[in-house]
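request received
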Amino acid sequence: MRLEALARALGVRLLGDGDLEVTRVRAVDDAGDGELGFAAAPEELRTAHTTKAAALLVPEGWAAEHAHEAPCAVLAAEHPARALAAAIDALYPAPAAPRGVDPRAVVHAGARLGRDVAVGPGAVVGRAVLGDGVIIGPLAYVADGVVIGARSRVGPGALVLEGVQVGADALIGPGAVLGDEGFVFAPLDDDARRANVPVRHVGGVVLEDGVAVGANTCVDRGALRDTHVGAHARIDNLVQLGHDVQVGADAVLVAQVGVAGWSTIGAGAVLAGQAGVKERTRVGERARVGGQAGVVHDVADGAAVAGTPTMPHLAWLKAMVRLQGLDALERRVRALEQRLGAPLERRP
Amino acid sequence: MRLEALARALGVRLLGDGDLEVTRVRAVDDAGDGELGFAAAPEELRTAHTTKAAALLVPEGWAAEHAHEAPCAVLAAEHPARALAAAIDALYPAPAAPRGVDPRAVVHAGARLGRDVAVGPGAVVGRAVLGDGVIIGPLAYVADGVVIGARSRVGPGALVLEGVQVGADALIGPGAVLGDEGFVFAPLDDDARRANVPVRHVGGVVLEDGVAVGANTCVDRGALRDTHVGAHARIDNLVQLGHDVQVGADAVLVAQVGVAGWSTIGAGAVLAGQAGVKERTRVGERARVGGQAGVVHDVADGAAVAGTPTMPHLAWLKAMVRLQGLDALERRVRALEQRLGAPLERRP
Amino acid sequence: MRLEALARALGVRLLGDGDLEVTRVRAVDDAGDGELGFAAAPEELRTAHTTKAAALLVPEGWAAEHAHEAPCAVLAAEHPARALAAAIDALYPAPAAPRGVDPRAVVHAGARLGRDVAVGPGAVVGRAVLGDGVIIGPLAYVADGVVIGARSRVGPGALVLEGVQVGADALIGPGAVLGDEGFVFAPLDDDARRANVPVRHVGGVVLEDGVAVGANTCVDRGALRDTHVGAHARIDNLVQLGHDVQVGADAVLVAQVGVAGWSTIGAGAVLAGQAGVKERTRVGERARVGGQAGVVHDVADGAAVAGTPTMPHLAWLKAMVRLQGLDALERRVRALEQRLGAPLERRP
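response:
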């Protein structure tokens, strides 16, 4: 595609030769002849001046100051990630969408399928309702009573259990499990033999429009209310969402995060990878929880926390620096004790 | 159901109008007209006096002091969780149990199935032995040599590999993997090309009666002995149990816990979410390991530990408070140095 | 098998009665009559003198000093793990390899299968290329465009998505997901409704020869380049490898490790269980990262680090000891303040 046409398609500013042809997008340090290099993070922009790309797609802010350093044409974008998504759409053919119900799928006679629904080979669909354009991957399972909104995709091998409700434009990753019963047993029982009898869950799972759930992630159904994930929340791979958890719209849960039962994640909150949230705990709206942090007390709206148990992010950073200096601090205290000890002992 | 009849069915004490009808159970802050609100945790009981429920199911201990504060009828239970399970059984119809072997399942001619075994569509069952009433979910895999005891359920998409033995009344979650080979390679090999040749495992996996295994959890087979999980142990989602691990009866492993190879978890021990146990380490009977804790040394029977590496729970709590005060402590030491430094320097 | 013949087959030194028969291998403290006990770790060797095994397989280094303490015959090996693998091969029949394409598998007419390829019941294989001797487990999914090298095995229920490339002699664990799109969205969008539009990934996943991937592990495809795993790297269960990650040859990632997008793990590096690596971070070659460590800054080649954020392993060990003594340190500072405070106050 000619660079000028691409710039127009993306709505970005072109600096350099608009007649150049680019056919692919690559990382800034990978791109070569005929390729558009992408650089937006500081680490990527640091290598922009040595790129072998035919052209670079960069943030407008960087281009304003540094475009002249780039050894190639430059596309300057207000919103680089959006421009990248658009560039990929412009340069690459749309992936072939699967069509129709594969004859090797098992679809219940009572299932209600919208227009243009695709069901892959080996998939099993019960008495479910699938909206227009829904795509069920190969070997996925969609149980009785499930409702899935228009254009949502259920990845290969995903397991969507009884009665789970998914909005439109949602993405359920391969191997994800939605709607298994939570980890609620009857622990106060005085009969040891019955000590682990699970409590039957009467809540469900509701994912609103545009929710993304990653591969092999588990979202348990509610014990007493629905486990609920708000619109456009993004949940990465291998995440655990316990029973009755409420996740607000646009929240982001990075890989391997765990949220225990009854807890609440506020709208727009971001939990970095491997963070954990104790049961019955609330992470506030737009709060930011650091990687591997352990949330055992409520986190206020807009707060940034880190560590286990969590503390304000800046306090944690300081504490971690001090932690490494503890050995030295102990020596200083010992020195003080020795110096102070002497005069005291000499007292009459 | 009339409240009086329900109270009798649950064996709990009724305070208030027994003629009320309730049809569902909900969380205390969710329940409304015609619903039984459940409150047992302190957080739930704090909101009991504002509930809109027709009646509340609460612990006897709370009812004795606070029942008069509840704006509705009260059911007071010695064992609230057990009463909750019973209330759900009383108010909700039993879930329809799947029946028979689905014609779209693949069951080996040499498999031995007890009475009332159900196998879901798309499931694959090898030369296995399935006890009376066993339920194999859709798209689950049960390999050759597997033995599963009466009334156990294997969730959709679960993978039960060669020779795994499961007792009666067990629950294997959707997507769980039982019996994969562990992470044992021949690392001392002097030929780099062979450096990662896996050691073939000659141990198996044995789960005793009533064990629960969560969704997408992995239990590796033993390298040299069976990986063994004692009766009624409860293992949550996304847990990793390494090869040759021994888990005692009634132990509880919350979501995302990892136990490395050759380790032992004592009977009745509780590992909170995301805790990790190093290889060849023993967690004692009834020990309690905090969330995200890292067990690198043996934990004594009955001990409560937290942190990485683990320390006694109370010591850890103190240390975490001190950690946040480290900055202040350093300033205090600096002040002492300055005050003490002066006289020393003035010495003749 | 006679012990003498076994010693010869393993290429190890025999001390004791070569006429003994052994039929199985067990852990040193499990082995009994007719069994070969294995002991290599210090914990195992400590119990060697009480073993009931007919013979012990131990490291040559231990045998040189302690063989006389063993109550049985001894096989002394330069490379015990390799000898163990060989002993298992000698004593146990080779597991029956599955053969041929099961009639209940779904294999695309355009798939290209080498000689002796096996595809299990319920598996779905698209327009893929499978080398000689490849084994696809039951209910596994191999998508269009996938290429798998000779003798590689794809476990039951594993999901190998579009275009993923796997070398020869690789092991893909049950339930593993290769090639799902990474966690890359267009976050700078000013239209909230579009805020979580995923960026279509144009990179793939490439696993070189001999790579092992554990059960339920996820390897995301690259956004702009291939996610790449070098030859003979070993990845355990429930690991998350983000998009565009580069893993060097022979690296070892233990269970539940998470590596965020754009990061690099050097050749031969070892990440212990539950460790996490932040996005765009580099772990050096042969570096060692402790269990649960949080890598937020680059780790130098050959370094050993621990903690969150990581510090040198020895510094971390010291800091952790000091951490437990913080309470005492604070009391010492308070005592100093009291002692020093008095004279100062008494000053005229």
